[in-house]
Design brief:
The structure holds two protein chains of two kinds.
Chain A lengths: L5 H47 L4 H5 L12 H32 L4 H15 L2 H16 L4 H26 L2 H9 L4 H12 L1 H16 L3 H4 L21 H9 L4 H34 L1
Helix pairs in contact in A: 1-12, 3-6, 3-9, 3-11, 4-6, 5-6, 6-9, 7-8, 9-12, 11-12
Chain B lengths: L8 H6 L8 H52 L9 E2 L4 E2 L2 H32 L2 H16 L2 H28 L3 H6 L9 H25 L3 H9 L4 H30 L2 H6 L17 H8 L6 H36 L1
Antiparallel strand pairs in B: 1-2
Chain lengths: 292, 338
């Protein structure tokens, strides 16, 4: 055997140390992933456990109860559906057109660069600030909270998501397709609507679905725009305050009444399932397109 | 007329039912019509793109106008004053700004190492067939609405911290001079630390998804060369992948920070809503967004409302700077990777 001299011993020591450091980091990275996944499992598990017990037909057929009695979540569910639909109807055309301009007409113009930068910031901007904005421009001048204000606030959140995906998806359409269409004598708007939109359809729909998923859980922008409404009294009057699922969850969860808290959990389960289903559908749509 | 092989849109359009006259006479008219429609569509899309800019301008302008009474009344001292008294109408943002910065700091302290370790697992260790499902699962954390984190934090996480983690931390750090101040006081369950921890989970997916994208863009040759020299996985990531992707990773971290600073509902549930700056992480505090969410609808008087809007303005300015920096860095790495 070769005797270990000083240098060789140090080298072996260094080698062992490097291996041990490596092992530690790998174990940590494994642990970190386990923590991330575990956390998701714990949150979903709690939601199922707490929310499923209150899940019954009454949740979907009765309006929110006064404290201390039973009831359902019909008005906030309908309110959320109405405001989400309005927000998508307002925000989607703006988003798709803006994305179209950035990818087709103005792909190399300076406006496009500025809009892209600003849009990416709006994408992550705090939603509560959007609520304040709509409060200032709609609620304060009109003098009262309204479902319209809530829908507009949500549509401000829809726009950046749709802009981003529309631009990205149109940019993926091969330019040869556009060239072929142009060579046939088609004007640009014809090329865009008949060729580009068709090729990018799945991607654009994915963007809209993601936007719906994003806004259907949003609470902060609705707090002082649509506010809340206990009953169906003014329903479906869009100029009046309107209940929404997230705001009702917020109110009920922080209340001292057991029935309300239980309804809050059920509402939380409904929202989460809806949002996760939407994002999974969006993902499958997006990936099925990539494969074809 | 065009030859048999070349049929343009005009000819197709001419066959449409709307045209009655002889085709040759209508041809210029159809061309003009197409050109007009194209111009209209062009301007329509342009207007939509400019709407995005108008939204940003509108947000800034409306916040400044709304905050004006408060800016006039308190001036610069609004930023450093700790008083928040609706009765005497004295308002200062110090506690809210401190809470916002502190909770985000705690969140980043935990989420950055955790996120990078998860990315290391996903890009270097994880078997191929597991990468997609695990990646999607981590990103689902970002899909869960923030109010769900709030209700879960209040009813599940806070009591858990109060019973187990916080007493243990108080015992462990009690004898150490500086740390004992950080971990002092009764374990309320809700407070700065709880809010920071919840934020950490919420922003984790932003860090992993960005760093995963940039990690995967590292040219394999670089990594293979390092492996060929006998580097361990950790050394390759630490000395080859990270230096190469540094700008992108920092961009992702800033993006996550921007999210953490502006997060509202999850924090509102667990922060405790106390307008004071206390050294202990267990103490209830408040953040800018939580203050607005809690007090805006109940605010009476112009000055109160205006102070809350000024808080919103401060929040927007801070997040705008952070997010702009993040985008700038991500643009830089995009240009490099191509």
């Amino acid at each position: 055997m070769i005797a270990m001299d000083g240098q060789g011993g140090r080298a072996m020591g260094l080698y062992r140390r490097r291996r041990i450091v490596n092992q530690i980091v790998l174990v940590l990275s494994f642990g970190a992933t386990a923590i991330g996944l575990g956390w998701l499992a714990v949150i979903l598990g709690t939601l199922l456990f707490e929310g499923a017990s209150g899940l019954s037909l009454r949740v979907f057929t009765e309006t929110t109860p006064p404290p201390g009695s039973d009831g359902g979540l019909l008005n906030p569910i309908v309110g959320s559906l109405i405001m989400t639909t309005l927000a998508v109807l307002i925000g989607t055309p703006i988003g798709i057109f803006a994305g179209t301009f950035m990818a087709e007409y103005g792909r190399f113009s300076r406006i496009t660069h500025v809009v892209r930068f600003i849009n990416d910031i709006l994408l992550s901007a705090p939603s509560i600030v959007v609520g304040l904005f709509i409060y200032e421009v709609m609620v304060a001048p009109m003098g009262h909270f309204s479902a319209w204000a809530g829908a507009v606030a949500l549509s401000v959140l829809v726009v950046p998501v749709v802009v981003r995906t529309t631009e990205d998806m149109l940019a993926l359409v091969p330019k040869e397709q556009r060239e072929a269409a142009s060579a046939l004598g088609m004007p640009l708007y014809y090329v865009i609507t008949r060729v580009s939109y068709r090729a990018a359809r799945a991607g654009i729909i994915t963007g809209v679905l993601l936007a719906i998923a994003r806004i259907s859980g949003e609470t902060a922008p609705l707090l002082f725009t649509a506010l809340n409404h206990q009953f169906f009294a003014d329903f479906p009057y869009l100029n009046a305050p309107m209940a929404s699922l997230p705001v009702v969850i917020f109110q009920f969860a922080l209340s001292p009444y057991h029935e309300w808290q239980s309804l809050a959990w059920t509402g939380a389960l409904i929202i989460t399932m809806a949002v996760l289903a939407l994002s999974i559908i969006a993902r499958t749509l997006a990936s099925s397109r990539k494969m074809s | 007329m065009s030859s048999a092989g070349r049929r343009s849109v005009v000819d197709v359009a001419l066959q449409g039912t709307e045209l009655t006259g002889p085709a040759a006479a209508s041809r210029p008219r159809v061309l003009v019509k197409l050109r007009v429609r194209d111009a209209i569509f062009h301007q329509l899309t342009r207007a939509a793109a400019i709407t995005v800019l108008l939204i940003l301008g509108g947000v800034i302008l409306s916040l400044i106008i709304g905050a004006m009474p408060s800016i006039r009344e308190f001036g610069f001292s609004f930023l450093i004053d700790q008083t928040w008294n609706p009765v005497t109408e004295k308002f200062g943002a110090r506690a809210a700004i401190y809470g916002t910065v502190m909770t985000s700091f705690i969140a980043m302290l935990i989420a950055v190492p955790l996120g990078l370790l998860i990315t290391l697992f996903l890009t270097e260790l994880c078997p191929m067939w597991l990468r997609r499902p695990i990646g999607i699962a981590v990103e689902l954390l970002a899909g869960i609405p923030s109010i769900i984190y709030g209700i879960w934090g209040l009813f599940v996480f806070a009591p858990f911290l109060q019973r187990t983690v916080q007493p243990a931390l108080i015992d462990a750090f009690g004898p150490i001079p500086i740390l004992s101040d950080l971990f002092a006081g009764p374990p309320y369950g809700i407070g700065m630390l709880t809010a920071g921890l919840i934020l950490a989970i919420m922003v984790l997916p932003f860090i992993t998804s960005v760093s995963r994208d940039v990690f995967e863009a590292v040219p394999p040759v670089l990594k293979e060369a390092a492996y060929g020299l006998g580097c361990t996985t950790y050394e390759v990531v630490r000395h080859v992948v990270l230096p190469y992707t540094r700008v992108g990773v920092i961009g992702g971290v800033m993006l996550a920070l921007g999210r953490a600073l502006g997060e509202t509902m999850a924090v509102t549930f667990v922060i405790g809503n106390a307008h004071r700056v206390s050294p202990s992480l267990f103490a209830p505090g408040t953040t800018i967004s939580a203050t607005i969410a809690n007090e805006f609808t109940e605010a009476v008087g112009d000055l109160y409302t205006s102070s809350l809007i000024q808080l919103g303005l401060i929040l927007f300015v801070i997040t705008f700077i952070v997010l702009a920096a993040a985008r700038y860095m991500l643009l830089r790495i995009e240009r490099r990777i191509g």
